[in-house]
Amino acid sequence: MENYTSDSSDNDSANKTLDFSYLSLDGDSFTKYLEDILINNKKTYDEIENISIHHNHFELFPEPLLKFNNLKTLDISSNGLTVLPDIFKCCNLTTFTARNNNLTNESLPKTFSVNYSCRELNLNGNCFTEFPEQILDLINLKYLYLGGNKITSISRNIGKLSNICRTMMLCSLQILSMGGNALTEIPASVGQLKMLHALVLCDNQIECLPSNITQLKHLKSLLLHKNHLRTLPPEIVLLKNLTELSLRDNPLVVRFVSDMTYNPASLLELAARTIKLHNLKIKKWEIPQTLTAYLESGHRCVNPNCQGVYFDNRVEHIKFVDFCGKYRIPLLQYLCSSKCIQGGSCYDVQLSKSHMMRKVLLG
Ligand SMILES: [Zn+2]
To answer: Distance from the CA of 301 to the center of ligand 1, in angstroms?
Structure first.
C-alpha cells in the first residue's frame, strides 16, 4: 500500500532539488560537474525545480542553468556575479535570489520577459545605483528585497506592482525592503501599493515621507530608523494596522535627546518651588508684583507620582507612548527634575489628561 506521508512529499521535493552551494565552482568546472550529477542520479533537466548554487565563483551567469525549463527557485547568492541574463525567458521562476553579488544597473538585460509567476526577488547587497526598472516587468511580485545597494530613488512606476483589480489582491507587493541605500525621498506612488505589509526604509538619507503613506491601510511594519527625518506626516496616525514603527537615529528623536542637559535651578526657582510645595501663604503686598506673577507661572510636573512644580527650569524628556493601543510614538514631556525620568518608568502617561505634553513629532 502506498503511504502518503509528509516524508514522501519531502523526498519528492528533494528529488527535484540540486544543491551546489559552497563547492568553489566556476563556469568550466560547473558544466562538467552538473553533467556528472545528472547522469549519476538519473535525472533530466526537466525534473529539477530547485537549485542552490550560492557561495561559488561565478562572475558570469552559468549558461547551463538556462536549460532547466521547470525551475521554480534559484539561489545564486554570493558569487561575485556581474551579469544577469533574462532568466525569466526560459522558466517560470517563483523565487529568485541573487544576494551579495556585484550586480549593477548595467548587469541586467534592458527588459525582463513579462513574468506572472515570480513572487519573490532578492537582490540585496549588490551595487545598484538606480532602481532597476526591469523589475517592474515581474508584475505579480509579492516580496521585493533591494536592501544594501546604493539606490538613490524608488521608481515612480512602483505602483505597477499593485494588482488590486486584476488578481484579487493576492499578487500585490506585500514587502518592499530598501534599507541601507542612498534614498533621499520617497515618491508618492508608493502610496499605490495598497497591500503592502512591510516597508523597510531604514539606513537611508530620507528627509520626509509623502502624506499619502496613509493609503497603505494594511501596513504593519514601517522601519525608518537611521534617516534624516525631522517630522512625520500627521496622517501616519491613520495607519490603524501599524504595529511596528522604528524611528531611532533620526533628528526628530536625536535632537530632543541631545537637548536634555540638566542645569541646576536658580535660587529664585528653588524658593518659588518651596513656596508652592508647602503651600505657604503669601500676601500680595508682601512681595513685588513681578514675583507674584512668577509664582503664578508654575506648572505641575507630569509625573503623577510627583507633587512637584517647576518654573523656568524644567527637564525635557522623550517618552514613547502606546497610542490608541496600536503603536508607539515619541512625545516630548516636561518634568520638574531628572529624578522624575528615572522613577518614571512605572507611571502611565494619560494622553488626554496631560496638558503639559505636546505632540511635537506629528505636526
Ligand atoms: Zn516631578
So the answer is: 5
Give the number of domains in the chain: 2
Burial class (CB in 10 A: 0-12, 13-18, 19+), 57: middle
pLDDT digits (tens, 9 = 90+) for 276-332: 989 888 888 888 999 999 999 999 888 888 888 999 887 766 666 555 554 556 666
Burial (Cβ within 10 Å: 0-12, 13-18, ≥19) of residue 4: exposed
Give SS3 for 300.
strand
What letters, b where the CB count within 10 A reaches 16 and e where it falls short, cover 170-201?
ebbbbbbbbbbbebeebbebbbbbbbbbbbbb
Same domain, yes or no, for 200 and 79? yes
Supply the range of the domain harboring residue 90: 70-255
* 362 lies in some domain: no
292 and 199 housed in the same domain = no
Same domain, 87 and 192: yes
Whether residue 301 lies inside any domain: the answer is yes
Residues 88 and 227 in one domain: yes
Ligand 1 centroid from CA 262, angstroms? 14
pLDDT tens, 232-248?
Answer: 887 787 888 888 888 88
Whether 24 maps to a domain, the answer reads no
**Cα 265 to averaged position of ligand 1 atoms, centre (Å):** 14
Q: Same domain, yes or no, for 92 and 222?
A: yes
Distance from Cα 305 to the centre of ligand 1, integer Å: 8
Mean pLDDT over 1-22 rounds to: 68
Give 149-164 pLDDT, tens digit per residue.
999 999 999 998 887 5
If one counts every other C-beta atom within 10 angstroms of the C-beta of residue 297, the result is 12
54 within domain boundaries: no
Q: Is 170 in the same domain as 283?
A: no
Query: What pLDDT score was predicted for residue 347?
Result: 38
Among 255, 281, 301, identify where a domain stops: 255
Neighbouring residues of 285: CB distance < 8 A, sequence distance ≥ 6? none
Give me ligand 1 centre to Cα 335, in Å.
Answer: 5
* Separation of CA 234 and ligand 1 centre (Å): 30
304 CA to middle of ligand 1, Å?
Answer: 8
Statement: the pTM of the whole predicted model exceeds 0.90: no
Cα 241 to ligand 1 centre (Å) = 35
pLDDT tens by residue, 214-229: 899 999 999 999 999 9
